[in-house]
Write the structure tokens for this entry.
Amino acid sequence: MWDQTYALSELPDDDETDEEVDFIASVLEFEDAFILDLCCGQGRHAIKLAEMGYSVIGLDSSSVLLDIANNSSLSNLWFIEGDVRNVPLQKNTCDVVINMFTSFGFFDDDENMQVLKSVASVLKPKGRFLVDYWNPYAAVLLDGTRNWWWVNDKILSLAEVKYDFSSGRLQDQRTIIDFENASNASMDKFTRDLKFYTLPELDVMLESVGMRIIEVYGDIDEREYDNNSRRLITLSEKVK
């Protein structure tokens, strides 16, 4: 249910997705590249990048979202189900890895490091890694927020957010009420838990797996990053 809810209600519209993809292409500076879209979801970036001529593999752990993504029939686009801590590709395969829409930090510190090690392994030397992340200073401000919305005319969702200042982790608890059967509505609860790392912390983590940050942005318009930025976007390069 979480994946279905995410697919229906939590994504930017097509115009913002186009802006994100234009940003990706601009900052990567590759005219021709083999791209891994890590945590690709239903493929909103992967599909558009493939339409631009890049060869793209989208990887996600959600079969629900991948079923949506696989509606595309582009010959230069593939989707695979897998674990981001152990990317099922050969070493030195990818020119670029992208990780968009705050899809890093799902695990504990050791396992989050394993994600970065896996990324470094599949990147070619001088390959680039783009991480699009909520600004951790903005994530703090979400603590205690509650928001109701209709996913569609049958499903109502409540998001309740808690931020743990001691661990830097944010818990996003969803209550999903399904009115498909009007006489007997169902209710489910799901929690998404993420660790938010600051820029200095990410710098140290990336350096430890053989990558160095070469650019930092505060949003997809390439503005300077500061504490008021909506996003923390890092572009790193594999050193060897």
In short: Residues 138-195 form a domain with the N-terminal domain of TfIIb fold (CATH 2.20.25.110). Residues 34 and 125 are 13 Å apart (CA to CA). The chain has two domains: 2-134+198-238, 138-195.
